[in-house]
Design brief:
2 domains; Cobalt-precorrin-4 Transmethylase, domain 1; binds S-adenosylmethionine; 267 residues; Methyltransferase, Cobalt-precorrin-4 Transmethylase, Domain 2; five-stranded mixed sheet; alpha/beta
């Protein structure tokens, strides 16, 4: 009888030792084949402790564009599934957050009539809300990739918070290179300029990096948006731009429904 392959995509969390979900752990243990795309050695250690035979999806630093690297990952995953393997593919953070390869692998496997499913994981966003003590829903929160934010202008409301990811990768479709100071600085300077169109220059944003390792605190560094151009950033830096005070309650709308807080901020 033919063995039918299937695909489960799971997230390793950011701090894998404590953020790998029970669901992900079970999927890793039960799979015929485990493939992972995690570079942080702590995550690799946790995955390999569960499955010594887990194989790393390659992430070459040879000038290939990221798009091509992700396509190669997708092909590697899909080939295994089509050969009848029950594959668990592990991606860092939440596998569906700013990650094209997992979504595409699921589309292709499902398109071949096989079972393909994604399990949620703990993303950098979850860590950010916890580490910065902010509630994304209270005043609203826009989440965007930094290059996309800059190159596809949108109407921004500074009374809604903003999270920008990949702020060190602005204008770079290749793999991150920490030595590429000129591009990084030009990207951050443009970002600063555009943010200053919506927020006051002295508005305090926070450079954020969730900790990967037990016992290491997150990076939470305040920076005025006008000074972003000279900020020191890494491959995993994200930016939190808090909202300005909320708009006043529309008294007519509130009164129509007998809202008790008419005239105050909505609770
Ligand atoms: C390709 S995305 C992957 C996100 C990942 N799938 C997740 O769920 O967190 C990479 C971007 O996520 C953000 N990121 C990843 N790790 C982070 C960390 N430890 N702290 C803050 N932001 C992080 C950064 O903006 C980084 O450029």
């Amino acid at each position: 009888m033919d063995k039918r392959g299937m695909l489960l995509i799971v997230g390793a969390g950011i701090r894998t030792d404590s953020q790998l979900t029970r669901e992900a752990e079970k999927a890793i243990v039960a799979a015929d084949k485990v493939l992972f795309a995690a570079q942080d050695p702590w995550a690799v250690r946790v995955i390999r402790a569960l499955r010594a035979d887990a194989e790393s999806l390659s992430y070459p630093h040879d000038g290939r564009p990221r798009r091509q690297i992700y396509e190669e990952m997708v092909e590697r995953i899909v080939v295994e599934v089509l050969q009848g393997q029950k594959v668990c593919a592990v991606f860092y953070g939440h596998p569906g957050v700013l990650a094209d390869a997992p979504h595409e692998a699921i589309r292709r496997v499902a398109g071949a009539g096989l079972v393909a499913r994604m399990c949620p994981g703990v993303s950098f966003l979850d860590c950010l809300f916890a580490d910065l003590g902010v509630d994304p829903v209270r005043q609203g929160c826009t989440v965007l990739e930094a290059s996309d934010f800059l190159f596809r202008p949108r109407r921004l409301d500074p009374r809604v918070s903003l999270v920008l990811s990949q702020i060190s990768q602005i204008g770079n479709s290749g793999v991150f290179d920490a030595e590429d100071h000129d591009r990084i600085t030009r990207g951050l300077s443009l970002l600063s300029e555009v943010l200053c169109e919506s927020w006051p220059g002295d508005h305090e944003a926070i450079l954020y990096e969730a900790s990967f390792m037990p016992g290491t605190p997150p990076r939470r560094e305040p920076v005025a948006v006008r000074d972003l151009g000279s900020a020191a950033v890494s491959e995993v830096s994200s930016l939190w731009v808090p909202a300005l005070p909320p708009p006043a309650v529309d008294r007519r709308r509130a009164a129509r429904l007998g809202w008790p807080g008419a005239g105050r901020t909505a609770a």
